[in-house]
Amino acid sequence: MNRRFLPLFAFALLLLAACASAPGPLRPVGESELDHFLAAAKNPRERDGIVTYTTAAGPYYQGANRVHPGRAITLKLRGGKKAPGRPLFSAEGRIPGSGILVLLDTSSAESWLALDRAAALDAVPVKPVEGAFPKHAKLSVPGYGTIVPRLRLKEKEYSAEEFWMELLTAYVPPAHGGLDALARGDGAGRDAPLFVMGASALEGLSYIRLDYPRGTIRFSSAMDNYATPKGWRTVAECPLEAKRAQPLCIRGRFDESDEMKIVLDSAGAFAASLPAREEEMADPPRTVVIGGKALELGEAVRSHAQGGLPESFPPRLGWKFFARHTVVFDFKARRFLLEEPLAGGEGKKKAAQDEKPAAWKHVRGTPAE
Prior knowledge:
This protein has six helices and 27 strands. The protein is mainly beta and 369 residues long. The N and C termini lie far apart (53 Å). The chain is globular, with a radius of gyration of 21 Å.
């Protein structure tokens, strides 16, 4: 993350004015509203025992981004028919009715929260006040560091199954109208996420499993090591790079290229996105090699420029590649896995059952409404 200290609003105001002609739904706040928001800033060490360290990649908040141990929850993906692999899910804060649509974006080092939902999640600005721009996406305004006390992952309103995440660090852009480019898709409307869960929020987890065949995402803080479920097999496996204040990455290569760092972009609507010139994309790579296994990329390969992404960012793999498999981010063992159901196995049968309910046969009468 590029850190920019913005002690004076005048600097930010000039920047916003320069970008006023850029398309997007963001409506920058006035100086008085920004001052009111930042006036609530607290020292995280005094408030929550969080110690802030300065690193080359950006600030690191030791003691933040906690999860309750020994828990797990499975949530439905809410990307819809247009984007079935987009990792959207529901969550809420401490206050009942504070529901929010969340996007998992493993290419973002930090989490991001829309200003319009900051109060509902009790987000408290961090003192000293600091503004920062994202590296993984282009945004015309900076975000200001905040601490979100609690976020509850829960599939059904009256379900006993829930998963708590606490003291999440999240940057809040000083503008109304959503998160714009950070939403990684439609930045407006009912399906627009207002919270982006970045890599920093995942530090305390054991693993995340994105089960695309069944359209679910599983968060776990279990003490046991992850094991591929019965009825599934591992297609590819390699070490996972999960470093502080950085996106999730692996080492791999495209076709016959040299090995390189590849960012795992769970929110990217592509198979692969490359920092390449337009003429180089006339013959794009056809495979990615992960853990020595060559896997087909398909046709959704593009350059960063074609997708409006920062061109200096490393190569990315997106959900249009991931969605052919089940993806596991194994944080405890530092592994990245791609899985698939065995032919005729238990995993395939369960996926089929989840897609279409079984028809009742040889039964008289009509079920109750």
